[in-house]
From TrEMBL:
InterPro entries: NAD/diacylglycerol_kinase_sf (IPR016064)
Superkingdom per UniProt: Bacteria
Protein name: Inorganic polyphosphate kinase
Cited SUPFAM superfamilies: NAD kinase/diacylglycerol kinase-like
């Protein structure tokens, strides 16, 4: 007998909850903000909208389904099951946060603050939840990026992966591409960024614009194609700048060999969940075999 679907509501602690937790009471949080020229009511209203959205989505879950909730900070400890339907209630970034932990489960993005969020990944309103969970909605498969180290550490991201130093130090490494006959260029830079079509709505797009759009066009979210950029490559007698941007088609790989004591790789801006790399380690980056299945209505 197959299990009934389980709705997993993914949310994050609101700014209001964080403020009250820090200051103890609503009044103390309000006093703290007012001393800095801010009004707590705006933050409290966003909190109330989020709570209303969670309640509305919860009420729309079919009675025969199981359900649970998970907060963003607990995602790395939560075990998703094959029969789960993941309902992200919050911002676009929350969908990216959960994507790396999934293996094909459909994701419904619910926007709690229309007009404030871009709505790239949270495309629906709380009132749409019932129809979306009925199972008749379409699904868009979004390309993801992965980095695999030679010690089997693996990192997956929906937007982009950054490889570089943990702080503001220079990252030193050798960079190469598949098909170059093993040739690699020694580089010193602010790090390497490899992103997807979904990431092309954020960090990757800003770097692309700074380069004047000189590299290939930005990919679409479902395209099996990535863009990569070296940030602020430094020319010197020992380091070059000939490999600073390009694209990776499906199956192609960018290879980085570490020549620093410590570099890290992290995805979608979550530096706390980074892969640690040390001198001589090799990491390859390319299109991920898994894709995010986003319910589009």
């Amino acid at each position: 007998m197959s299990l009934a679907p389980r709705a997993v509501l993914v949310h994050r602690t609101t700014e209001y909850e964080e403020l009250v937790a820090r200051h103890g009471t609503h009044g103390q949080a309000a006093f703290f903000l007012s001393s800095r020229g801010r009004d707590i009511e705006e933050i409290a209203e966003r909190h109330r909208r989020t709570r209303r959205a969670l309640a509305e989505v919860t009420a729309a879950i079919p009675l025969t389904w199981r359900q649970t909730r998970v907060e963003r900070r607990d995602l790395d400890r939560f075990l998703f099951a094959p029969e789960d339907v993941v309902v992200v209630v919050g911002q676009d970034g929350l969908v990216a946060n959960v994507a790396k932990y999934l293996a094909g489960q459909p994701v419904v993005g619910i926007d709690t603050d229309p007009g404030r969020n871009p709505g790239v990944l949270v495309r629906h309103r709380p009132a749409d939840a019932g129809a979306l969970l009925a199972g008749t909605a379409g699904v868009e498969e979004l390309t993801m990026v992965e980095a695999v180290a030679d010690d089997t550490q693996r990192l997956v991201a929906l937007n982009e992966i950054y490889l570089g130093a943990a702080g503001h130090q220079t990252a030193r490494y050798r960079l190469g591409l598949d098909g170059d006959g093993g040739a690699a260029e020694a580089q010193a830079s602010s790090g390497v960024l490899v992103g997807t079509g979904t990431g092309a709505t954020g960090w990757i797009r800003s770097v692309w614009q700074e380069r004047g759009g000189g590299v290939p066009r930005l990919p679409g979210p479902s395209e099996q194609r990535l863009l990569w950029f070296v940030r602020e490559a430094w020319p010197s007698p020992a380091t070059g700048t000939s490999l600073v941007a390009g694209e990776l088609a499906a199956g192609a790989r960018l290879t980085l060999t570490v020549e620093s004591e410590r570099l890290i790789a992290f995805g979608d801006g979550i530096e706390s969940d980074a892969v640690e790399l040390t001198w001589g380690q090799r990491v390859t980056v390319g299109v991920c075999g898994e894709r995010l299945r986003l319910v589009v209505g």
